[in-house]
Design the sequence.
């Protein structure tokens, strides 16, 4: 039996370098994925498909379909990461998540990533449910900012103590959301709102019942940015 899907996606195709006035309505999820990529590039942002950053093959037999997205969760890459080569970071994140003992993911957990230079990377195919928010992934698009956005004391563990000590002697700088990264996130959220009925936007730890590093993510700095973005977009907090 052939499956049919409904979506609000519209794909604008160039003909001989000219954008036509007729907008083609799409009723296919694969075409919607492509439409999001096209829209991102039309907004002047670079978009890197998963094949171009050498993503590992997912465990397709375990992947779960998802589509009617209503929320966006913002993450940071974690305290062991900083601004750097995005493709390498994504490979490391995917390997870590797929090889995690007892709770291995079927693919990289996030749908999209944004590096410090404002480039958007495709993570998990948007047609599949993510694995980025504990017990709260259905209908939630996951976007990770490839930077550590915690303040030094966050976590209250040995890592936090070490960072706090280094900051005290001027050897550790508290990170910030780079301007290019923040601008791209704002534009990209507006694009996703065109294709899905997005009503809520939250930092990872704002979703109910989070554990471990999920209680920190996306860091105090990242969460402050999320609050600002919510005010700009008019979206509600999760929960």
Sequence:
């Amino acid at each position: 039996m052939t499956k049919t899907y409904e979506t609000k996606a519209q794909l604008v195709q160039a003909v001989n370098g000219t954008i036509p006035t007729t907008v083609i309505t799409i009723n296919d999820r694969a075409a919607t994925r492509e439409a999001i990529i096209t829209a991102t590039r039309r907004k002047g942002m670079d978009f890197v498909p998963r094949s171009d950053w050498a993503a590992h093959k997912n465990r397709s037999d375990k992947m779960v379909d998802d589509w009617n997205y209503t929320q966006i969760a913002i993450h940071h890459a974690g305290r062991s990461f900083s601004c750097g080569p995005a493709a390498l970071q994504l490979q490391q994140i995917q390997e870590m998540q797929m090889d995690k003992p007892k709770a291995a993911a079927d693919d990289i957990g996030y749908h999209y990533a944004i590096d410090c230079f404002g480039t958007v990377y495709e993570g998990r195919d948007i047609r599949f449910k993510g694995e980025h928010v504990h017990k709260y992934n259905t209908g939630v698009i996951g976007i990770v900012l490839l930077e550590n956005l915690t303040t030094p004391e966050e976590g209250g563990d040995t890592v936090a103590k070490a960072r706090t000590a280094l900051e005290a002697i001027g050897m550790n700088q508290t990170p910030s959301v780079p301007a290019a990264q923040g601008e791209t996130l704002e534009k990209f959220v507006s694009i996703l709102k065109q294709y899905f009925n997005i009503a809520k936007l939250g930092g990872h730890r704002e979703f109910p019942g989070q554990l471990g590093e999920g209680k920190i993510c996306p860091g105090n700095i990242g969460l402050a940015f999320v609050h600002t973005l919510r005010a700009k977009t008019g979206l509600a907090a999760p929960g």
